[in-house]
Design a protein that fits this description.
With about 500 residues, the protein is an alpha+beta fold. It folds into 3 domains: about 5-175 and about 260-380, FAD/NAD(P)-binding domain, CATH 3.50.50; about 180-255, Alpha-Beta Plaits, CATH 3.30.70.2450; about 405-500, Glutaredoxin, CATH 3.40.30.120. It is built from 14 helices and 26 strands. The chain is globular and about 75 Å long. The two termini are about 25 Å apart. The mean pLDDT is about 95. The structure holds flavin-adenine dinucleotide. The site of flavin-adenine dinucleotide has 33 residues, from α1, β2, β9 and α8. Flavin-adenine dinucleotide binds near residues 31, 123 and 155. This is Monooxygenase. GO terms for molecular function: monooxygenase activity. Keywords: FAD, Flavoprotein, Monooxygenase, Oxidoreductase.
Length: about 500
């Protein structure tokens, strides 16, 4: 076997996945077709849950200085924004950060962890058998090498060769509409205000560069494959805003479409899919990259557990069961947003569509509605269904990042305890002296036991006595039992179900 896991694609999804695998000691190689890192940035945002997972891996200090926190985000470009600051998180903001920076920081981390990112290496196809897969890799000089891997993960974007080679269907709808983006150095702030007022999305980036994004009713049926020219861009802005906003010398022009597809399965034998390889949609409310990062967080530790030989039955299959419904929900909400935008561009629907948007904006002013949608777009609301009936209501939800004091150590946050990407088992009552020895004897390399002597209050944790947190920060198991013997039995059962047979 040349490698345990071959990750195809060094976009944000592939890079974070490689970091997760390397943290667990899995031999990983990343094959990337591009010879150089991507300079232009499609995505510009890390939404709250992405910031949380970066925090969980101790990387926040690298990301925060390069980005700009913004307290909310638009939904369908409605005037009322989603308020992330009202959500229960230390990171109730979106970090405005160009995708190129996110990729550079993840690549840096992957290299530190010993991952080789092999650039100029295009995967041309693969064949799998019972205990691995042969991956055909075409190098810079055109030569083809066959790499044998125990598992292959396609993080190779919407046109994924891995997905196609594994025969995984990608049902959905073709592109029916396209938008355009352009990055320019613009000096006239008044022009930007006019553009905003006319429905053009205007996002100041770094070094004085401004991103314009628009849907021009006269150009929305132009296929995404047709290049955008400066003349076209100026003509569209003039049509939409009454002026071309002084744009010249574009840094980047691009046309993107609303093809919406979801892989029929995220796993076929030894092949798995993550990120755009598994789901594509219109970039409404900036969710694609963020969803890919969450896929990687969900998959990394599970695949590592299988490779390292201790995964309990069904753990790897839970990746599809947990993440595919999230992919489905994201594709659906982007379709809703696209429709809300598109209808206003169709003459016979313009009046009712404008009224519909006004109604939606009004609804978003209601705190509960706003919170519900903000939780969905930020991914803070993502909860995985419990595997067993009668589980504690916390199971599947993200663990709150409370501060706590552990016996014999300094105050710490739960997310800091997750940096090693192992399970964290918390005795919240501090009265289970057997926890440490039980965990260390049976699951020492997989679980960090913590006896909590003091902690922040959190309403979700009232009455909880013990809790097992997964490496991705979601709750695996929790109990409110106070009886010591009953707790011991439940604990052993939970540890075996999640962290495998004791070693
Ligand atoms: C206009 C626009 C704006 C967007 N804005 C946002 C936003 O604000 N927020 C957000 O979350 N998302 C946004 N997105 C979506 C986001 O850019 C993507 O969802 C994200 O890049 C997906 O990451 P990925 O790693 O899964 O795939 P990709 O970024 O597509 O990376 C795939 C990688 O695989 C490589 N590759 C492909 N085929 C092969 C092969 N055969 N062999 C080897 N390597 C291969 C590619 O070169 C590439 O580097 C936007 C998208 C667009 C179009």
């Amino acid at each position: 076997m040349n490698v345990d896991v071959a990750v195809v694609g060094a976009g944000p999804t592939g890079l974070l996945l490689a970091c997760e695998l390397a943290l667990a000691g899995v031999r990983t190689r990343v094959f990337e077709r591009r010879t150089e890192p991507q300079r232009d940035s499609r995505a510009l945002s890390l939404h709250p849950r992405s910031v949380e997972v970066i925090d969980q891996r101790g990387l926040l200090d690298r990301f925060l200085p390069l980005g700009r926190p913004v307290p909310g985000w638009h939904f369908a470009q409605l005037p009322t924004h989603l308020d992330f600051s009202a959500l229960d998180s230390r990171h109730g903001y979106s970090l405005f950060l160009a995708q190129a920076h996110t990729e550079a920081l993840l690549a840096e981390r992957a290299r530190e962890l010993g991952v080789e990112i092999e650039r100029g290496c295009e995967v041309a196809g693969l064949r799998q058998d019972g205990d691995g897969a042969e991956v055909e890799v075409r190098g810079r000089d055109g030569s083809v090498a066959t790499i044998r891997a125990r598992y292959v993960v396609g993080c190779d974007g919407g046109r994924s060769v891995v997905r196609q080679s594994a025969g995984i269907a990608f049902p959905g709808t073709d592109e029916t509409l396209t938008g355009v983006l352009g990055d320019f150095a613009v000096t006239d702030p008044a022009a930007l205000d006019v553009a905003r007022a006319r429905g053009v999305l205007v996002a100041p980036m770094e070094d004085g560069v401004v991103r314009f994004v628009y849907l021009d009713p006269e150009r929305i049926r132009v296929p995404s494959g047709e290049p955008v020219t400066l003349e076209e861009f100026r003509a569209s802005l003039t049509r939409l805003c009454g002026s071309d906003c002084g744009v010249a010398e574009p840094r980047w022009l691009s046309r993107f479409g609303n093809a919406t597809r979801l892989a029929e399965s995220y796993r076929a034998g030894r092949v798995l899919l993550a990120g755009d390889a598994a789901h594509i949609h219109f970039p409404a409310a900036g969710q694609g990259l963020n969803t890919g990062l969450q896929d990687a967080m969900n998959l990394g530790w599970k695949l590592a557990a299988v490779v390292n030989g201790w995964a309990p039955p069904g753990l790897l299959d839970s990746y599809d069961a947990e993440r595919r419904p999230v992919g489905q929900s994201v594709t659906e909400n982007t379709e809703v947003q696209t429709l809300l935008a598109e209808l206003t561009l169709v003459p016979q629907y313009r009046r009712p569509a404008t009224a519909l948007r006004a109604l939606f904006a009004e609804l978003l002013d209601m705190p509960q509605v706003n919170r519900t949608l903000a939780a969905r777009v930020s991914a803070l609301g993502t909860a995985y269904p419990p595997a067993t009936p009668g589980a504690d209501p916390l199971v599947g939800h993200r663990m709150p990042d409370i501060g706590l004091t552990a016996a014999g150590s300094e105050a710490v946050r739960v997310y800091e305890l997750l940096q090693a990407a192992r399970y964290v088992h918390l005795d919240l009552t501090g009265d289970a002296p057997d926890l440490g020895p039980t965990v260390t004897a049976g699951w020492g390399s997989r679980v960090t036991p913590v006896t909590v002597t003091a902690r922040d209050a959190h309403p979700d944790l009232d009455g909880v006595t013990e809790i097992l947190v997964r490496p991705d920060g979601h709750v695996a198991w929790a109990t409110r039992t106070t009886d010591v013997r009953a707790r011991q039995a439940e604990r052993t059962e939970a540890l075996t179900a999640w962290a495998g047979t004791p070693s």
